[in-house]
Amino acid sequence: MTVNAGPWVTMSGNKLEKDLNKGRVVEAKFRGKNNKYYRSLPQRVRFSEIDQYGVLWNGHYIQYFESARLELCEFFKFNLGSLANAGIALPIHNIEIEIKAPIQRDDTFHIYVRPKRFESGMIDFFHFIKSEDGKLLATSKVRHILYDMEKNEIIKVLNAKTKEVIYPMLKEFLSEKEIN
Prior knowledge:
By secondary structure, the chain is of the alpha+beta class.
């Protein structure tokens, strides 16, 4: 049995792993529309992350959203290291964050994330944070580009090596028509 007590819990071949993963891909309603989302493990704001007003400092939202995206990738065995070894980078191109309500020290919340769009070498992810009682706290849109490091260009169409790594995650959330 393998256990990693970091932000991601990793276990191998036992009931606890199945229990942790149960309910991780969920139907969630946002703005009246149901979609599939990956729901992060519960997150808790730490003392070191609060600002002078006693709320989560705005710069930490980016880290929380990134952690949820990495959890999503790990959940679907989308290994960013394998992508880098294949000469493909996935840098962030654009980030939008809208804070709806302050998150205070010791608040517990979940981050919901899903790939929203894949086209012309870009993957857009949409996130939202909800408190334990279901209150919407923040939203985010993050655009990544698929970049071929050898050719120094954006990958506009999934080639075989990219498709092998990224396709299992995309097909869980997007239709075949939305994946080129």
